[in-house]
Amino acid sequence: MTLVTKTSLLAALLLAGTGNAWAQTEAGPTRDAATVADPARENPAQEEAPAETPPPPSTDILSGRTLSILLDARLVAADGHRRFSDGGLSITRFSGTDDGDFRVDPLPIEADLIWTPRFTGSLAGNVSVAWQRDQENEVDLMEAFLTFLPERSGNVSFSAKAGLYWPEISLEHATGGAWSTVHTITPSAINSWVGEEVKVVGAEVSMMATVGKSDISATAGLFGFNDTSGTLLSFRGWALHDIKATAFGHFELPPLNDFIVHLQEDRTRSLIELDNRVGFYGRLEWRPPVPVTLNAFYYDNRGNPEAFKPTGQWGWRTRFVNLGLTAELAPGLRLLAQAMEGTTQMGFKTNGVVWVDTRYRSAYALLAKEIGEGEISGRIEAFDTSEHGSEMSHDDESQQGWALTAAGRWTFNPRLTGFIELLHVRSTRGTRRVYFDLPPTESQTVVQASLRVRL
Q1: Phi-psi category of 307—alpha, beta or left, where left has phi over 0 and alpha has psi -120 to 50?
Q2: For 406-425, how does the pLDDT look when each residue is reduced to its tens digit (9 = 90+)?
Q3: Is the pTM of this model over 0.85?
Q4: Using CA atoms in the order 177, 183, 184, 185, what is the torsion angle rounded to 10 degrees?
Q5: Whether the Cβ atoms of residue 26 and residue 83 lie closer than 8 Å to each other
Q6: What is the architecture, at CATH level 2, of domain 3-454?
Q7: Domain assignments of the chain as residue spans, ordered by start
Q8: Whole-angstrom distance between the N-terminal and C-terminal Cα of the chain?
Q9: β partners of residue 340
Q10: Is residue 58 very low, low, confident or very high in pLDDT (cuts 50, 70, 90)?
Q11: Would you state the pLDDT for residue 43?
Q12: Which of 148, 161, 233, 169 minimizes the C-alpha distance to 201?
């Protein structure tokens, strides 16, 4: 497919995707451097270039090789009351009818244009723009970064990355463009939140070394434009969905309490700089001489919780630790697990206690078994938030929940991949009763069938 053909096709699809024929009436009102550094971490079939594609030349700025289109369309059946992206408190991407019963909809979900130029043998770029369902802008920038990977010599190598990107936290996402999930349609609560509030404008440097029979890597990064990270965790809680933050987009917030509503805008922008403070993160990874990989990630945005804009966007001081594990338990059988714990604070202090002080944690384990050209997987997870702020209700504005996911993936050919998924979530948050006169505990089920096309 030629460059002109690809560009024209994407434009037509974007226009079609926003048309009335596929409109959904919702209930209620209206990886990055390590993969570059380690070719063994190539993406699954749905994210790879077609097998017959010849190796790219060392310099390739603009051609059919450097441009690709990703499309995602689904058939969705879901129950539950008004979803979070419409200002409600149901924590899945799709919701049911006005009274919470099941509804079924065929929906276009996403169209991405990805440009991956190679400037030299060691310097490459990645730029993706997207139309996403539930995104306020018709087209928005997803990622834009450069990677530098000089040829390795000896037991030590270095790499670097700079631009707009997600730090390497998720074990569930591929890096072939558009930050797509690999094993399931819906990522875990941890990586759903990473997708919406942990995107940065920054730079990182990584060092990889072989020590004995083990491989060890260390990454250090500095960043900005992530000052509002934590807003959704405090005011909504954890959620399970695959809506991804964009450079200029916002996420709607649920109803806010009588104090916060006069301070905070009714939406949050994921990418914004408020205090001119530089945040940092660090990552360590160990690969012993067995099929196991362990990693630890620490993040601190160093946000000033007293910084704000007149529009109602506030700074948040957000910190967390994330631990990750991948293990090959048997041929074709893989275990993924992550655990995250952190805190986020916003506002001034009343009687020595900051206005919003949320402690959060979550963990999941996922098993994936390859079967021919496909895979089946299952995931179990738990999550909670605990509120301790002076201007927040410690009971009503905390959250507890768990989720189970079963999924299947089949690769029909290098350009077409199908998914099917059953997601069941049970969560409790007192604000459901306060603002919507609903029981504080809600169980939701979402069934999805997805077709992903790569052109």
Answers
A1: beta
A2: 999 999 999 999 999 999 99
A3: yes
A4: 20
A5: yes
A6: Beta Barrel (2.40)
A7: 3-454
A8: 8
A9: 322, 362
A10: confident
A11: 41
A12: 161
